[in-house]
Design the sequence.
C-alpha cells in the first residue's frame, strides 16, 4: 500500500511539474527556447530579448532592416562610382 501511495505521489509531482518553464527553472537552464538560438533568457520569459514577446518587437522588423541595408548598399555603390 505504501508503495502505491509513493508511486502515486511521484506520478502526481511529475505531471504537475511537466511544464518546460518549471523544469528549466528547477534545473537552472536559462537558454532561449527558440530553435537554434543560444542566447540567455530574460527575466520571467523562456526566450531571449530578441524572441520574447514582452518587449513588443515589431512584426515588420525584418523588412525595416532589409530596407536599411539596401539603402546603405546603394549609397556605398554610388560612392564607389564617384571614386572611380
Sequence:
Amino acid at each position: 500500500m505504501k508503495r502505491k501511495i509513493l508511486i502515486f505521489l511521484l506520478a502526481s509531482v511529475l505531471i504537475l511539474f511537466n511544464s518546460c518553464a518549471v523544469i528549466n527553472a528547477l534545473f537552472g537552464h536559462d537558454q532561449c527556447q527558440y530553435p537554434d538560438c543560444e542566447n540567455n533568457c530574460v527575466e520571467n520569459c523562456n526566450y531571449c530579448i530578441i524572441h520574447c514577446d514582452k518587449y513588443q518587437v515589431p512584426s515588420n522588423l525584418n523588412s525595416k532592416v532589409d530596407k536599411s541595408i539596401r539603402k546603405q548598399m546603394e549609397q556605398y555603390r554610388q560612392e564607389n562610382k564617384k571614386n572611380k
